[in-house]
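Internal tracking record. Fields below are filled automatically when a chain is submitted to the structure queue. Please do not edit lines marked as system-generated. If the sequence contains nonstandard residues, flag them in the REMARKS field before resubmitting.
Queue: standard
Priority: normal
Entity type: single polypeptide chain
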Amino acid sequence: MNTRAKYTEFIKAEAKRLGFLSCGISKAGFLEEEAPRLESWLNDNMHGEMRYMENYFDKRLDPTKLVPGSKSVISLLLNYYPHELQNEDSYKISKYAYGKDYHFVIKDKLKHLLTSLQDEIGDFHGRAFVDSAPVLDKAWAAKSGLGWIGKHSNLLSKKTGSFYFIAELIVDLDLEYDTPVTDHCGSCTACIDACPTNAIVEPYKVDGSKCISYFTIELKDDLPPSFKDKFDEWMFGCDVCQDVCPWNRFSKPHNEPLFDPHPQLLENDKKDWEEITRETFNEIFRKSAVKRTKYEGLKRNISFLKKD
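SYSTEM-GENERATED OUTPUT FOLLOWS
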C-alpha cells in the first residue's frame, strides 16, 4: 500500500472511531463553480445583515489561501438527529441546538483526530474548521462525495438525509481523493413548497435574508411585521425544509450524549416558554448554541410568535 492510501485509510478509520458519520477527502484548490454563485448571492443581498459573509471572499473559495501549503480538504459529518422531539404544544427549536453547542463537541473531536494523525504520520501542517471560518463546508463535503447539495441548499445523503454537522481538516498531506455523487432530488419540490417564508427562491437558491433561521438567530433588529404569523412557531432556527425532505426518512438518532437536550427543553409547552426567566434560560441553554441569540433575543422571538 502506498503512503497516500495508507494515510487515507488511517484518517477514515480514526474518523469512524471518533464517532463521525462519514469522512470524504478532496484536493484543495479554487472552487470554480461556486465562485460566480457566491458572488451573485452576495450581490443580490441574500445574506441580509450577515455582513461577515462578504469578508475573505478569496479565502472562502480557495483553502490554499486560508491554509498556506494545503493539499487536501478532509470533510467530516457528525449526526445530530435527536432521539426525542419537543412537546407538540411548544415553540420550536432547531434540532441542531438541542444539546451542547456543536462547535465545542466537534472541535474536541477534531483535536483528537489531528493528534492521532500526528502520532501516526509525524510532522505535518493542518487546521480544523467548524463553520466559524470562511470555508464553504457544504461545497467541500459535496466535492468529497459525502452527498449532493439539495434544492434547499443543504447537503443530502441517500443513506442519512441531512441532519448532521459538517467540519473540515485542511492539511498539507497528499491523500487519495473521493469523487462527487450525483444529485437525487429529481422533480421533488417538497422543501420549496413547504418553506413558510418562501426563502427558497428557486431550486438550489436560498434567500438567506428571508429564512426563519436568519430572523431568529442572525437578525439583531426588530423582526419585520410583514412576516408575522409566518414563522410556523419556530423560536430558534427552522427545520421545515429538512423535515419535509423524503431523504430524511432515513435519519437515525445520534449516539453523542453531549447532544442530548436538557429535559425541560423537551417538556416545556408554549406557556412555559412565554414565562421563561433569565435564570431558567441559563439553566436550559447553559452550553447550547441557543446562547447565541441571548435571553433577550429568545424573548423577542417568542413575543413575535404569540397570537394577538
